[in-house]
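Thread: Modeling a multi-component assembly for a lab meeting

Hi all, long-time lurker, first post. My supervisor asked me to bring a structural picture of a complex we are working on to next week's group meeting, and I have zero experience with this. I have the sequence lines for every component (320 residues in total). Could someone generate the structure of the whole assembly? Inputs are pasted exactly as I received them:
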Amino acid sequence: MKITVNGEPREIAADTLQQALDALGHGDARVATAVNEAFVPAAARAETRLAPGDRVEILAPRQGG
Amino acid sequence: MRLYGTELSSRLMLGTAQYPSPAILAEAFRRSGAGIATVSLRREAAGGDGGAFWDLVRDLGVRILPNTAGCHSAREAVTTARMAREMFGTPWIKLEVIGHADTLQPDPWGLVEAARELCADGFEVFPYTTEDLVLAERLLDAGCGVLMPWGAPIGTGLGLSNRHGLRSLRAQFPEVPMVVDAGLGLPSQAAEAMEMGFDAVLLNTAVARAGDPAAMAEGFAKAVEAGRLGYEADPMEPRDMAAPSTPLIGRAVLA
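Re: Modeling a multi-component assembly
Sure thing. I ran the full set together rather than chain by chain. Output:
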């Protein structure tokens, strides 16, 4: 399935957001997620189904001012 | 100083960006005595575990204030805030909704809209705002318990570019905790903000981009403390004409 991850087109075999995270190698990583510009809490990732063309954002703690 | 019910011993808040190295960042925090660190959320590379920077910040032993830096709409900022709340486990959010690319000036309308939504959702919002009195009132109406007016545009180091406006804002809402955020370049500018009665200052570039960030961090810490003492000590009124400080009585006649 073709989706966009952090602005990049990706071909990923995943039905849910959690499966996509696993496929991308994030596993239990400390990341926060959004799908189509809406926040998806960690607890909801396994039930959040992805559709072709979905835009997934995977963010992590970084330096900030 | 209390911000949203949390007692803080330091009136200096420090950003975590742009330091030459993680070790220098940690040393700057140690010498600053800052009790709050600002952080952000950014895209994670595939396979990344998001852990290295988070471990560094956690080891600082300070409170975390995540920001919504780079957001140009209320919607983006609200989504980022929700992601940050889960990531960092805090209801605190430094709310930035940028309205102008060159000055990074806040978008007042977007800021109020995002503040209203986040306050209603249980966030404790620290809005990055201008010295505008009407905007300040709208932010307070939206539920903000702290205001963070700019000293000057982010990263400029220009100091307090609208002293009259800042004084007027401070006087208008004497009970509201206010943090001068952004635009400071020198410790003397931080001292001036504190002498004006602001409760704290937040800075990043002035420390991180100094030749010796740790020394500059300590310089700012001392300036903030000095400025606050000056404010609390009830300064004298300036006057136009000289007034001798040494008594005239008992003066010898030698002429």
